[in-house]
């Protein structure tokens, strides 16, 4: 039987599923579908955005932008109180974004308006970045939140903080989720030795951050500090301690996180880093191996590396920076002589972190052995300290770790799988003597001379 159709009729809601309809059919300017069908098309769009966000296919910032875009586009349909033009209860079991309520006139009227549409969206996965927004009274929501409490919500229709203007939302999320360090709290007692450096940092960094009302004008804190010295002396630990003791947000980055992971977008990442830090101030930006990022400029330098370096120097102390910003950049390096002159000028406080002295090495051994089962007395600890001259803090930790394996090695004749913890003997002085034969200092005397010379020329310490 041959069937012909002279007129192509538009599909009806009862015949075709909503998701199969063409995008153009639901356009606001379309004259083909009814206002009710346009409203249902809007609800389908909102549902797709909600689903993509809930499954982490798009970010919250992207979802907020789409919500705002479609809400403005369909505002005439959403806010209409007429049953013929407002959102109806079609496909209620499938599209659950709108709560349809029956009015006194027995006409269906949607509860979805431009004022409450965002209350229906998913909150998204826990820990999503929530950009700081300006409330309607002009105040802020307290800055960027990395992990909002359950039950918190922000209205994406509100304007985003001006400090994040022109910053790509994806880069902001990368800063918050991959660069911010949420480690355990660190106190000054956790750092052995370097008393002069700790006293200087308290004076010029921690106190001004705790009392910004007192440290103003010439007493204002510096914007940059350089910690230089042999590897393994606690420079990174000092950076974390600064953030903990001052109550500041701690950002820990390296040159590789800006140059290799986001190839071609390094300068944008630097700009995003400082923008987020301004929203989170007081903030501490710790840059490990800063010589890799701010090395001396030369003719053979790659253009992308030069742009990153220039952007960093501008953000650190340039025309766009404010004296009221409570952002501290702490750089750590083992090669201070390779740092660019412009960067060295901006890192006004350059503190030498030397190898631990005898008292500091004793403190390290005592603290580490206090957590272990050992039989060391005071005299044996003093001998260990004398024989470990020239060791860094990391070397001392490795020495104690190697000595702690001595009791295990003495059980080789027994089945390690069947022994009990009581059968493992205490760590003795003989274990440390054996460890001293295998663990060597990681810093050479020649390197120490270079650090001392640079400290006398550019350093701010003794």
Automatic annotation (TrEMBL):
Cellular localization per UniProt: Cytoplasm, Perinuclear region; Nucleus
Main location: cytoplasm
Cofactor requirements of the protein: Mg(2+)
Key words of the record: ATP-binding, Cytoplasm, Hydrolase, Magnesium, Metal-binding, Nucleotide-binding, Nucleus
Catalysed reaction equations from the record: ATP + H2O = ADP + phosphate + H(+)
InterPro entries: AAA+_ATPase, AAA_lid_3, ATPase_AAA_core, ATPase_AAA_CS, FIGNL1_ATPase, MT-severing_AAA_ATPase, P-loop_NTPase, Spast_Vps4_C
Residues of the AAA+ ATPase domain: 221-357
Protein's name according to its UniProt entry: Fidgetin-like protein 1
């Amino acid at each position: 039987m041959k069937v012909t159709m002279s007129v192509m009729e538009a599909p009806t809601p009862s015949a075709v599923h909503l998701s199969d309809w063409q995008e153009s059919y639901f356009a606001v300017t379309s004259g083909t579908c009814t206002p009710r069908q346009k409203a249902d098309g809007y609800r389908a769009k909102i549902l797709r955005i909600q689903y993509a966000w809930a499954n982490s296919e798009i970010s919250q910032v992207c979802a907020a932008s789409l919500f705002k875009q479609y809400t403005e586009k369909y505002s005439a349909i959403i806010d209409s109180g007429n049953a013929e033009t407002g959102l109806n209860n079609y496909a209620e079991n499938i599209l659950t974004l709108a709560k349809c309520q029956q009015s006194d006139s027995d006409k269906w009227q949607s509860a979805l308006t431009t004022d409450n549409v965002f209350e229906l969206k998913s909150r998204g996965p826990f820990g999503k970045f929530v950009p700081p927004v300006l409330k309607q009274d002009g105040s802020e929501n307290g800055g960027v939140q990395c992990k909002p409490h359950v039950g918190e919500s922000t209205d994406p229709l509100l304007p985003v903080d001006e400090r994040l203007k022109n910053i790509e939302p994806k880069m902001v999320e990368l800063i918050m989720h991959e660069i911010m360090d949420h480690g355990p709290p660190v106190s000054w007692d956790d750092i052995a030795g370097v008393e002069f450096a700790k006293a200087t940092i308290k004076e010029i960094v921690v106190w001004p951050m705790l009392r910004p009302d007192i440290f103003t004008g010439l007493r204002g804190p510096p914007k940059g500090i350089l910690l230089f010295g042999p590897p393994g002396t606690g420079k990174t630990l000092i950076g974390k301690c600064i953030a903990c003791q001052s109550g500041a947000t701690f950002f820990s980055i390296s040159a590789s996180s800006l140059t290799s992971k986001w190839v071609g977008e390094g300068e944008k990442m630097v700009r995003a880093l400082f923008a987020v830090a301004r929203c989170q101030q007081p903030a501490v930006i710790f840059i490990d191996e800063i010589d890799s990022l701010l090395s001396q400029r030369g003719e053979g330098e790659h253009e992308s590396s030069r742009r990153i370096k220039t952007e960093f120097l501008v953000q650190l102390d340039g025309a766009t920076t404010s004296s009221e910003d409570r952002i501290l950049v702490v750089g750590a390096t083992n090669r201070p002589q390779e740092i660019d002159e412009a960067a060295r000028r901006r890192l006004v406080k350059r503190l030498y972190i030397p190898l631990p002295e005898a008292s500091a090495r004793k403190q390290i051994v005592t603290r580490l052995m206090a957590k272990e089962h050992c039989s060391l007395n005071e005299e044996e600890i003093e001998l260990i300290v004398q024989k470990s001259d020239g060791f860094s803090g990391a070397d001392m930790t490795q020495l104690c770790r190697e000595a702690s394996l001595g009791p295990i090695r003495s059980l080789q004749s027994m089945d390690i799988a069947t022994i009990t913890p009581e059968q493992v003997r205490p760590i003795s002085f003989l274990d440390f003597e054996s460890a001293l034969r295998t663990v060597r200092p990681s810093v050479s005397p020649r390197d120490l001379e270079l650090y001392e010379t640079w400290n006398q020329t550019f350093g701010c310490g003794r």
